[in-house]
């Protein structure tokens, strides 16, 4: 029979000063933290005075438990925990009236492992966001006042792009080798000028109505985002009853197969475009070929080339004219983290992050974009990878073998919401970005960790691709054996930073609705080759 271990100390060495009606803290802080680190629960007994709703000793015991990941068990329902009107403490702590103390062991034993993880995660979020530093404490006080008077926070910072001037050369698309879509009609290239996604439409509701979401989910109430992947969706009636929000229904609302499907975006959200963000380093010829391949791609807003090379582009370099802006951004240093900076020139919610040697067809990109529009909070991409457990060494491994399960999608060819670029650059722990810079590796793993940690969902893989490298391109860093050893180290380090493994497995990929469906001769597939 397995017996639960309960630590009860009846002697108190060096008790800390406390109120007459409350339990004193015993020992030094370091000693208490060591005990709490090995604990699942930490008992927090409210002061005996029913008129006293909070005390310094109570607060200290609560914060020490949250800091090391123990679940606070607050004995006494008259206690008021910090910011109780804004923070839902029931998601991170257990509140039990004192008369039910005899049931306490049974109540704690009834919690599932799933609940324990969720509560420890939430407790850690509350500690790190609101109480861990004096700066956080002050920011929380100001944010609570601002929330009560319904004043939104300041807009989150965007990275100003220092553009590198360049000159366009020949018209793109003249190379016959680039026309790999056959007779496939992917829909109209937008004839109107590129348009940006609407911004800051929910400034008031974000502060006044979404207080639960903003205070109890990462990243907290300290920033105002221009848009998030969690914004509410209008019902289908909005497409047809004159809402004026720019929907593009399939067949003007009657539906249809391939021909009608390719002529409109459809879906549940209004029309929009996406931005290609392409990272490059001293491979000008490869870059020019990749840019030229984007010519004629529907719903493309612009291309942002993140120039990671220390040397500027060659003076005689002729950039392809693809009919859309190509913005070349200068970086302060060569860092893979630059891929995910929230550049101010990115004016769409959807970002297609793509390597300069990625080789994707237009129909694959369009299919990925359509899938992402229905799963805006996920990473949607092409090559899948997974994390595996090393039984012998009791550690995590990065694995790129063919598998029926995956937990990561490489961001060398993936769609994600710009919201995650803000979180990656300004909210995610700095230690992770530092490790990416140290190894010049693992930025894609870090982004997958971040999104899975926020959403508790796995990424979405589209098409059957397992690789996307172009034939004939110079050898990439990922072909080096040390590349995989570094990625093993990254995964295990990221797990230590988050305190658990946030990646989740998925066992399916997404294909087009009419994939392998037999159709009448007068109908066509949504995507001919997918």
Automatic annotation (TrEMBL):
SUPFAM superfamilies to which the protein is assigned, alphabetical: Nucleotide-diphospho-sugar transferases
Key words of the record: Disulfide bond, Endoplasmic reticulum, Glycoprotein, Glycosyltransferase, Golgi apparatus, Manganese, Membrane, Metal-binding, Signal-anchor, Transferase, Transmembrane, Transmembrane helix
Superkingdom to which the source organism belongs: Eukaryota
Record localization: Endoplasmic reticulum membrane; Golgi apparatus
GO molecular function: glucuronyl-galactosyl-proteoglycan 4-alpha-N-acetylglucosaminyltransferase activity; metal ion binding; protein-hormone receptor activity
An example Gene Ontology biological process: heparan sulfate proteoglycan biosynthetic process
Record's keyword annotation contains Nucleotidyltransferase: no
UniProt entry tagged with the keyword Hydrolase: no
Cofactors: Mn(2+)
Secretion signal span: none
Broad class of enzyme this protein falls into: transferase
Catalytic activity: 3-O-(beta-D-GlcA-(1->3)-beta-D-Gal-(1->3)-beta-D-Gal-(1->4)-beta-D-Xyl)-L-seryl-[protein] + UDP-N-acetyl-alpha-D-glucosamine = 3-O-(alpha-D-GlcNAc-(1->4)-beta-D-GlcA-(1->3)-beta-D-Gal-(1->3)-beta-D-Gal-(1->4)-beta-D-Xyl)-L-seryl-[protein] + UDP + H(+)
Pathway: Glycan metabolism; heparan sulfate biosynthesis
InterPro entries: Exostosin, Exostosin_GT47, GT64_dom, Nucleotide-diphossugar_trans
Membrane-protein topology: Single-pass type II membrane protein
EC assignment: 2.4.1.223
Domain named Glycosyl transferase: residues: 274-515
GO cellular component labels: endoplasmic reticulum membrane; Golgi apparatus
Domain named Exostosin GT47: residues: 29-111
PANTHER family, A to Z: ACETYLGLUCOSAMINYLTRANSFERASE, EXOSTOSIN LIKE GLYCOSYLTRANSFERASE 3
Function summary: Glycosyltransferase which regulates the biosynthesis of heparan sulfate (HS). Initiates HS synthesis by transferring the first N-acetyl-alpha-D-glucosamine (alpha-GlcNAc) residue (GlcNAcT-I activity) to the tetrasaccharide linker (GlcA-Gal-Gal-Xyl-)Ser core linker. May also transfer alpha-GlcNAc residues during HS elongation (GlcNAcT-II activity). Lacks glucuronyl transferase II (GlcAT-II) activity. Important for both skeletal development and hematopoiesis, through the formation of HS proteoglycans (HSPGs).
Stated family: Belongs to the glycosyltransferase 47 family.
Subunit annotation: Homodimer; disulfide-linked. Interacts with REG3A.
Protein name: Exostosin-like 3
């Amino acid at each position: 029979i397995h017996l639960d271990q309960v630590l009860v100390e009846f002697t108190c060495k060096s008790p800390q000063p406390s109120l007459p009606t409350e339990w004193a803290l015993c020992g030094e802080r370091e000693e208490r933290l060591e005990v709490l680190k090995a604990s699942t629960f930490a008992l927090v007994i409210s002061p005996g005075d029913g008129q006293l709703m909070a005390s310094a000793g109570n607060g200290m015991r609560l914060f020490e438990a949250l800091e090391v990941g123990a679940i606070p068990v607050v004995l006494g329902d008259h206690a008021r925990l910090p910011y109780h009107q804004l923070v839902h403490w029931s998601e991170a702590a257990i509140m039990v009236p004192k008369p039910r103390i005899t049931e306490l062991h049974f109540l704690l034993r009834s919690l599932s492992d799933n609940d324990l993880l969720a509560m420890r995660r939430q407790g850690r979020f509350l500690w790190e966001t609101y109480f861990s530093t004096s700066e956080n404490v002050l920011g929380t006080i100001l944010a609570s006042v601002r929330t009560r008077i319904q004043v939104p926070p300041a807009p989150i910072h965007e990275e100003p792009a220092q553009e590198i001037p360049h000159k366009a050369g020949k018209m793109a698309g003249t190379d016959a080798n680039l026309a790999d879509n056959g007779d496939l009609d992917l829909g109209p290239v937008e004839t109107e000028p590129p348009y940006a996604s609407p911004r800051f439409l929910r400034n008031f509701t974000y502060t006044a109505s979404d207080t639960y979401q903003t205070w109890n989910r990462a990243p907290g109430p300290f920033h105002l985002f221009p848009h998030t992947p969690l914004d509410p969706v209008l019902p289908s009636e909005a497409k047809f009853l004159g809402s004026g929000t720019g929907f593009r229904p399939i067949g003007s609302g009657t539906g249809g197969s391939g021909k009608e499907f390719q002529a409109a975006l459809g879906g549940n959200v209004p029309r929009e475009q996406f931005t290609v963000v392409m990272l490059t380093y001293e491979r000008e010829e490869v870059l020019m070929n990749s840019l030229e391949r984007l010519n004629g791609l529907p719903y493309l807003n612009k291309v942002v080339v993140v120039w990671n090379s220390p040397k500027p582009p060659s003076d005689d370099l002729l950039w392809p004219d693809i009919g859309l802006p190509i913005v070349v951004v200068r970086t302060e240093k060569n860092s893979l983290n630059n891929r995910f900076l929230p550049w101010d020139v990115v004016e769409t919610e959807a970002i297609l992050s793509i390597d300069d040697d990625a080789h994707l067809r237009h129909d694959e990109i369009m299919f990925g974009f359509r899938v992402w529009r229905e799963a805006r909070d996920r990473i949607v991409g092409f090559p899948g990878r997974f994390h595996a457990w090393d039984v012998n060494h009791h550690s995590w491994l990065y694995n790129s073998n063919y598998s029926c399960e995956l937990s990561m999608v490489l961001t060398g060819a993936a769609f994600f919401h710009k919201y995650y670029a803000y979180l990656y650059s300004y909210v995610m722990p700095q230690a992770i970005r530092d490790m990416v810079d140290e190894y010049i590796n693992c930025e894609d793993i870090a982004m997958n960790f971040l999104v899975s940690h926020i959403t508790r969902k796995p990424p979405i893989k589209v098409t059957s691709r397992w690789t996307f490298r172009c034939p004939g391109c110079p050898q990439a860093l990922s072909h080096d054996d040390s590349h995989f050893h570094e990625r093993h180290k990254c995964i295990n380090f990221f797990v230590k930073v988050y305190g658990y493994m946030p990646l989740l497995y998925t066992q399916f990929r997404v294909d087009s609705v009419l994939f392998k469906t037999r159709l009448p001769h007068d109908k066509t597939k949504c995507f001919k080759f997918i």
